[in-house]
């Protein structure tokens, strides 16, 4: 995931804010469900969540259009309607990011054996999660400290990784270095640590180094557990355990 993020940090830091991420998930699920989806159709589904203003919603699709990720074309059935067409660029990015969720499931449960994946089927099934409004910021305490900010998803992953690379969970990186790795401002990272410290997620050494507390590690593990479960559901992954060998298979 970190490698994918660094390929397009300015776009992904925006995408990895929960309101933008849910909008993108809504768009993709509707796109693969309906052959002639319009921006208005996406807005009708998304607006019930009350996550973005109309201006922010429109800005998101303007970004997709001018960055070469979607095209708007007249419908063959009704020339007055502009339907959304996904470009190869967005299709490739979508698969790359989705596989960062599916591949770990293979490593965890199937010793690296390949798990079949179909983009259309995945997002058609994922639409159930969108329809029912099952969003992480409603499920995990203190998750909003991260995911309601630019790059929030990446910030959680990076801090967890840095903690796992340290024997005592003390991060040697400065806030400025963390901000650079996540392509966000230093003030945003400072606010994350201030809010997180108030909730017992972080503390500081006498020389002001950041200590990752166990409460954050549990938050991060719960957060990714939900994400993996979403991916398993959308990809219709059902594991069976051999009564003889105990090996898990699809």
Structure at a glance:
The protein is mostly helical and 250 residues long. It has helices spanning 2-7, 9-15, 18-33, 39-46, 54-66, 88-109, 119-131, 144-147, 152-164, 175-182, 186-198, 214-234; strands at 70-74, 82-86, 170-171, 202-204, 210-212, 240-241, 248-249. A hairpin with a 6-residue loop joins strand 6 (240-241) and strand 7.
Can you tell me about this structure?
The protein has twelve helices and seven strands. The protein has helices at 2-7, 9-15, 18-33, 39-46, 54-66, 88-109, 119-131, 144-147, 152-164, 175-182, 186-198, 214-234, and strands at residues 70-74, 82-86, 170-171, 202-204, 210-212, 240-241, 248-249. The strands form three sheets. Strands 3-5-4 form a three-stranded antiparallel β-sheet. It has a two-stranded antiparallel sheet with strand order 1-2. It has a two-stranded antiparallel sheet with strand order 6-7. The longest helix is centred in the middle third of the chain and has 22 residues, at 88-109. It is globular and about 70 Å long. The model has no long low-confidence stretch (mean pLDDT 90).
């Amino acid at each position: 995931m970190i490698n994918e993020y660094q390929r397009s940090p300015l776009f992904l830091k925006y995408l990895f804010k929960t309101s933008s991420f849910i909008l993108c998930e809504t768009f993709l699920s509707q796109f693969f469900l309906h052959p002639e989806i319009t921006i208005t159709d996406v807005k009708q589904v998304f607006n019930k969540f009350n996550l973005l203003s109309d201006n922010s919603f429109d800005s998101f699709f303007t970004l997709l259009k001018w960055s070469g990720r979607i095209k708007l074309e007249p419908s063959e059935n009704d020339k007055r309607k502009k339907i959304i067409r996904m470009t190869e660029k967005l299709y490739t990015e979508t698969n790359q990011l989705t596989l960062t969720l599916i591949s770990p499931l293979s490593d965890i449960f199937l010793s690296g054996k390949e798990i079949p994946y179909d983009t259309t089927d995945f997002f058609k099934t994922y639409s159930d999660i969108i329809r029912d409004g099952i969003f992480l910021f409603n499920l995990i305490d203190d998750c909003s400290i991260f995911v309601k900010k630019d790059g929030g998803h990446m910030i959680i992953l990076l801090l967890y990784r840095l903690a796992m690379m340290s024997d005592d969970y003390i991060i040697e990186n400065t806030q400025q270095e963390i901000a650079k790795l996540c392509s966000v401002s230093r003030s945003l990272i400072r606010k994350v640590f201030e809010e997180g410290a108030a909730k017992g997620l972080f503390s500081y050494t006498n020389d002001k180094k950041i200590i990752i507390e166990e409460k954050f590690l549990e938050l991060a593990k719960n957060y990714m557990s939900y994400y993996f479960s979403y991916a398993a559901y959308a990809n219709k992954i059902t594991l069976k355990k051999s009564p003889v060998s105990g090996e898990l298979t699809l």
